[in-house]
Amino acid sequence: MESVASQSRSLNLAKSLNQAFGEAVHEAPLCVDLDGTLVRGDTLLECLLLLIKQQPACLFLLPLWLMRGKAHFKSEVAARVRFDAAVMPYRAELVDWLRGEAARGRRLVLASGANIRIVEAVATHLGFFSDTLASDETQNLTGERKAAALSARFGRFDYIGDAAVDLPVWRAAETAYLCVSSETHAQVFGQQITFARTFRDAPVSSLRLWLRALRLHQWVKNVLMFVPIVLAHEFLDVDRLWTLTLGFMAFNICASSVYVLNDLLDLAADRQHPRKSSRPFASGDLGLINGIAIWPVLVVSGFALALYASPAFAGVLCVYYALTLAYSFDLKRRALVDVFALASLYTLRIIAGAVAAAVALSPWLLGFSIFIFLSLAIVKRVAELYSVRERGIRDVAGRGYQIDDLAILEVLGVAAGYASVVVLALYVSAPESRMLYQHHQLLWLFAPLVLFWISRVWLITHRGEMHDDPIVFAMKDAPSRIVGLVAILVLEFAAL
Known about the structure:
Blueprint: H1 2-21, H2 23-26, E1 30-32, H3 43-54, H4 62-67, H5 70-79, H6 92-103, E2 108-115, H7 116-126, E3 131-135, H8 143-154, E4 158-161, H9 167-172, E5 175-180, H10 183-190, E6 195-200, H11 206-214, H12 227-231, H13 238-265, H14 267-271, H15 280-283, H16 288-309, H17 311-329, H18 337-357, H19 363-390, H20 406-429, H21 431-436, H22 446-462, H23 470-476, H24 478-495
Helix pairs in contact: 13-16, 13-17, 13-18, 16-17, 17-18, 18-19, 19-20, 19-22, 20-22, 22-24, 23-24
């Protein structure tokens, strides 16, 4: 009896242990989609943007690759880019859950329509997938083809997906899971498939995302276009002011297109930045396809408005855009060249304003602009270097600088800022100022004001407290606003 009871207890213990520790062995493999599911984005679009940035000439080969089928297209693109799986915007909640499933012994399979090179890179980076299934040069593994491939390899399987193309796979799966960014999609798919669990993103306002992506707050930089008409005392001329206003809006629209393009091309670098990683495209909150679609719309509408305002102004805008593209694709990675390019872009805003308003451009204003904007451009790089140093990194991602460059950059930046004050002082002493200002002596007050502001900007930068955009800093900084108000009052009284 004792022996029988002992055997019974042993059998029950074995059964319990099998249920507790061995259940995962008998579970169906958990197959996980990549694009839109594991990552908040599309790896094919990511690779396309990388290809355009790394090998722009390949842009002309894209139609030829596509003519040979989508699978071949994906393979050609993946073979030519340096894809970094470590910087992708993964769904943190899903990744944590998958790690837990893997830890208890469940078999995880990364099954995606993305090319095998991309899928294996992601699987290697995460480390908890035991198998992969992906598109190759001949087969595009999506929809019905993915469902058939998973059924053929595993027989029974569970599946996590995110889109309508996954419907055949969910239907073939033993258990279905859903990843969604909107409640609407969850309701639509829930009417067709019963999901064991749904992973939802936190709700984010689409309008808020687009306002951030277009960076409307950066439009304040383009107010520089009004400086020439103010200094020429022609700001009461309605016709000039109307044309300038149209040019201002055109410049704003084109500037937003630049910001969108820059964010699309700088995804990897932005994701490694403590603040830029939260940008809509870098974080995956806003789909890359949206940015790719809106960019040409902004460019065409901006230049159309510029041509309507003034053909000459449209020409200056073309120069600005060409320099911006050169900066985005190449110049930003070249030490010193990048800051001179940035200073030129700011100065071009003033030139554009003068052309749009049809007023003479003062060489004094041009000289002052070059020096002060060079100083502010260097502020941006120094601020980035301080931020990087705090994180224990020696190089800035996507830039040509090292931490050791801080000392020389600060010297160059301060020198450029003070040189702008020298140009300002020379202008006050020049005959031009006497002709435009009845009390031109008051303009001398500009010198200490600019000296104070430049010195304050660099002091804050040296402390590592500077926002990486000094223009945004000036908008938020109370002393900077006071300096600006006093400068306006000085200008008004000098003209009386």
